[in-house]
Design a protein that fits this description.
The protein is α+β, with helices and mostly antiparallel strands. Helices cover 30% and strands 34% of the residues. Helix 1 packs parallel to helix 6. Bound molecules: uridine-5'-diphosphate.
């Protein structure tokens, strides 16, 4: 019996399972940029992202972060807890890059006085617009205590991951997280892969993330494989 597809995203498909509290995630070989307007297939990408995300989520779980992951069932499939996803992309920045550099005409790589947390409202139709705390509150997207909790978790995750990647000679420039509600708790959902973070080699400052695809500056699969190799190197 094939499972019923309930959502087809840019990088992952989501299926129902026999258990109504659990969903099946299938990582796809597709990469998109410009909010899906540019699309390309990269055989092997799904497996790489599933493996990379698993290593990072395992590390976060070991360090007390609650997540939706239950277990992996193949190299590109994961069983997850079904949550009520909060429709916010939570972006944390340690250094200037991407849209922040464009918006304020700043130099890529510039260090920030403190990490920045930004919210974007998840909507393909609207191209994920920036949204501030007071809009999140007024539109009923999340409560003040949920906003505070999400920001606090993002900072905690940042502290853990900056150390984790520095150990692999990688600088964590910025990343995007998503959260979901489950049983009166907020837990980390989605994935953590080079699709949704910026990682720079500490020596060369070369990108080891989706900027390779966005800026057409190298081979995506080769680059993501390099990240996985660093994470698994003894
Ligand atoms: N990001 C993401 N999904 C999005 C937008 C951004 O995962 O829909 C990630 C992106 O990979 C980067 C961080 O969030 O690590 C900050 O992205 P930025 O706002 O600079 O966006 P860009 O215009 O560069 O995609």
């Amino acid at each position: 019996m094939t499972n019923e597809l309930i959502y087809s995203g840019k990088a992952k498909d989501l299926f129902k399972t026999e258990n109504e509290d659990e969903l099946l995630v299938v990582y796809k070989d597709q990469a998109t940029a410009l909010n899906g307007k540019r699309k390309e297939m990269f055989p092997g990408k799904g497996e790489l992202n599933c493996n990379i995300s698993t290593i990072i989520f395992d590390y976060l779980i070991k360090n007390g972060i609650k997540t939706h992951v239950i277990k992996n069932i193949s190299e590109h499939e994961q069983l997850i807890k079904k949550t009520e996803v909060i429709p916010l992309e939570v972006v944390l920045r340690n250094r200037v890059s991407g849209s922040l550099a464009r918006k304020f005409d700043l130099i890529d790589g510039e260090t920030l006085e403190t990490p920045i947390i930004e919210f974007y409202f998840k909507s393909d139709k609207l191209d994920d617009p920036f949204i501030n705390d007071s809009q999140v509150l007024a539109l009923g997207i999340a409560t003040q205590s949920e906003i505070d909790y999400v920001k606090n978790q993002a900072l905690k995750i940042n502290d853990l991951l900056v150390k984790f990647f520095a150990d692999k000679q990688l600088d964590l420039i910025d990343f995007k997280l998503e959260f979901g509600r489950l049983d009166n708790e907020i837990i980390l959902v989605d994935e953590f892969s080079p699709d949704n973070c910026r990682l720079w080699d500490q020596t060369s400052h070369n990108s080891l993330d989706k900027d390779i695809f966005r800026q057409k500056k190298g081979d995506l699969v080769e680059t993501y494989q390099k990240v996985l190799d660093r994470l698994t190197a003894k």
